[in-house]
Amino acid sequence: MPRVSVLLTCYNHRPFLQPCLEGLFGQTFRDLEVVAIDDGSTDGTRELLSEETRIDRLILTERNLGTYAALNLALEASRGEFVAILNDDDLWDPRKLERQLELFEAHPELGLVHTDGWFMDAEGRRLEGSPLGFEFPRTTTGDALVALLYANKIIASAVLVRRECFDRVGSFDPAYFGSGDWHMWLRIAERWNVGYVDEPLTFYRLHGSNASHRLERIWRDDERLRLWIRDRYAAYLSSGRDRRELRKAFSHNEACLGTVQMLNGKPAEARRSYARSLRWAPWRLKSALRLAATFLPPRLFRRLL
Q1: Residues 76, 102: one domain?
Q2: Average pLDDT per 10 consecutive residues for the chain, totaling 305 residues
Q3: Which residues of 284-298 are buried (b: 16+ CB within 10 A; e: fewer)?
Q4: pTM for the predicted model, two decimal places
């Protein structure tokens, strides 16, 4: 059995696939298997994959299933003690898996380890600052649950996960469009600590076809996930974590939920979410202001964001 299974997810990114493969097969850690899945590409991606002899298993779907349904197929076909995800438009430093496994060895209580990195453009040039409106996501090593309640702080291509985590929490939820990885990290962080390698070892490529550019579907995803988080409040409060920090995180979650509900055309639901935000943290001025702004026309509300 290989120590690491790499799930290589591919869909219509043929121009970026060769550099991705070079980073994958250039890893200093060698005890790995590669399970590649092409999710209905039409741009020559599956032909290139079919010619790559270093891929251990290749799954070709007849139609585009979506990110998380495809990931589940690859996960089911894999055998490794640890599981890594690599999207076909991203890149790895050669030491990525080696450094992550070193942290797992030092901290056996970890369920997931991710790395630092940076954003790059379509040509592979590093992008400084916050090109997506936020810095490259990262956590500290330890209990990451509260941090993850605020936002997704883990890039999918940056993770290495113990298979035991998937065995216990289940597979990815295919109903999500782009937030299914965040949903998974939360489920893992409820039970295990999260590790972080503070080195730039994962490189996330920004280009015109990134899923993150499809805002309306992301907003619907975000609403669904934040409602799921709301349903977990009681469990989190009984978990022994700092209740004051949890209340602040719940207030933030409700405020974010109110905002996406407004963006999704649900002002009445947004008002109730902003009111819940204020019940968790009465001093949160931004929630009070946005509650008032829900009575404005939607186009004016968006301009205030």
Answers
A1: yes
A2: 97 95 98 97 96 97 95 98 97 98 97 97 92 91 98 97 98 96 98 98 85 77 98 98 98 98 96 98 95 89 81
A3: beebeebbebbeeee
A4: 0.95
Which of these, 168, 227, 226, lies nearest to 192 by C-alpha position? 168
In this structure, the number of other CB atoms found within 10 A of the CB of residue 15 comes to: 13
43's CB contacts (< 8 A; 6+ apart) are: 12, 13, 14
Task: Among 180, 213, 246, give the residue marking a domain's end.
Answer: 213
Q: Which amino acid is at 210?
A: N
Strands (E), 80-190: 82-87, 91-92, 110-120, 126-127, 159-162
User: What's the CA gap between 266 and 262, in Å, rounded?
Assistant: 5
CA 172 to chain centre: 11
Q: How many domains does the chain have?
A: 2
Structure tokens at 202: 């994962």
Residue 164 token pair: 């035991």
Distances (CA, A) of 111 to 2, 7, 119: 18, 17, 25
Contact 68, 116 (CB under 8 A): no
pLDDT of residue 209: 62
Query: Which range marks the domain in which residue 170 is found?
Result: 4-213
User: Would you state the pLDDT for residue 276?
Assistant: 98
Which residues, 6 or more positions from 212, have their beta carbon under 8 angstroms from its beta carbon? 132, 178, 218
Same domain, 23 and 45: yes
The total number of residues written for the chain in this structure:
305
- β-bridge mates for residue 91, sequence order: 203
Domain check: are 257 and 235 in the same one? yes
- The two tokens of residue 208 are 């015109």
**Which residues on neighbouring strands pair with residue 202, listed in sequence order?**
92, 117
Question: Same domain, yes or no, for 221 and 171?
Answer: no
Rounded Cα–Cα distance for residues 130 and 123 (Å): 18
